Amino acid sequence: MHEIKYMEFSRNTTEKEMARARARIVNRNSDWGSRGEEYGNFKLHQVICDSYDDAVEKIRQYDEGWYDDHGVLFRDYGKVKPTKQMEAIKSQISDTRQKRQEFIDAHLPNRVKAELIGCQHCGSKIAKAYLRGAYCPVCHKDLRPKSTLNRIAAYDDKIKTLQKKYAELEKKQKDKAEVKWLVKLEYHC
Fold first, then answer.
1. pLDDT per residue as tens digits for the range 22-59
2. Is 90 helix (H, G, I), strand (E, B) or coil?
3. What's the burial of 170, exposed, middle or buried (CB within 10 Å: 0-12/13-18/19+)?
4. Residue 34's pLDDT is what?
5. pTM, whole model, 2 decimals?
6. Pair (21, 56) in one structural domain
7. DSSP code of 166?
8. Reduced DSSP (H G I as helix, E B as strand, rest coil) percent helix, strand, coil of the chain, to 5
């Protein structure tokens, strides 16, 4: 099985220490056998990315597609105290997720009064007692009406918008963030 992991290291970790940590993971999980410290074939780039996600994207840009591993620096906001505005957005995200889940739970196909549920896609009639979720057991398509699916998508869009706002506010505090290495490890297990 093909595996990709991202490892975080403090900024002052040496390349040799990173190679040892990477080798331990490969030795433990790989079918390639013991490689010791030899598994150090990665390139470190002195680029500082504004977030973890930006660092993953930058590594993908460097990646040539065949087990070539790279590392970049990124700003970790984990220990940065959020502002009041950030806390408010975090609260909005949490509330929206909760409302979304409540909406999904309230609109499950097995909550309707009818004993038989009709699938719009394959035409099957399924007894409500046999449903274990929102999908047709015959064709595996969603049984909920488009209006319900659109409402769920609207919740998802709102959450994404709030997360982007939060990330923008977080990046404004980049001078307070800790800078770390993010190193990709790709191997076969």
1. 888 777 765 554 444 455 578 899 999 999 999 999 99
2. helix
3. buried
4. 47
5. 0.69
6. yes
7. H
8. 45, 25, 30
CA 68/CA 186 separation, integer angstroms? 7
Query: Are 91 and 142 in a shared domain?
Result: yes
Task: Report yes or no: 139 and 126 within 8 Å, Cβ to Cβ.
Answer: no
Contact 185, 35 (CB under 8 A): no
pLDDT confidence band for 158 (50 / 70 / 90): very high
Which among 187, 185, 183 is positioned nearest to 49, based on CA atoms? 183
The CA distances from residue 124 to 20, 115, 142, in Å, are 57, 13, 13
Is residue 169 helix, strand or coil? helix
Given the structure tokens 């190193």, which residue do they identify? 183
Query: Radius of gyration (Cα) for the chain, nearest Å?
Result: 23
Query: Which has more pLDDT, 16 or 38?
Result: 16
Contact 183, 22 (CB under 8 A): yes
What residues make up the domain containing 23?
A: 2-78+177-188
Count, residues in the chain: 189
pLDDT band at 166 (very low <50, low <70, confident <90, very high): very high
The helix (run of H) or strand (run of E) holding residue 7 is strand 2-10
Weakest mean pLDDT among 35-49, 94-108, 152-166: 35-49
Same domain as 150, residue 182: no
The count of structural domains within the chain is 2
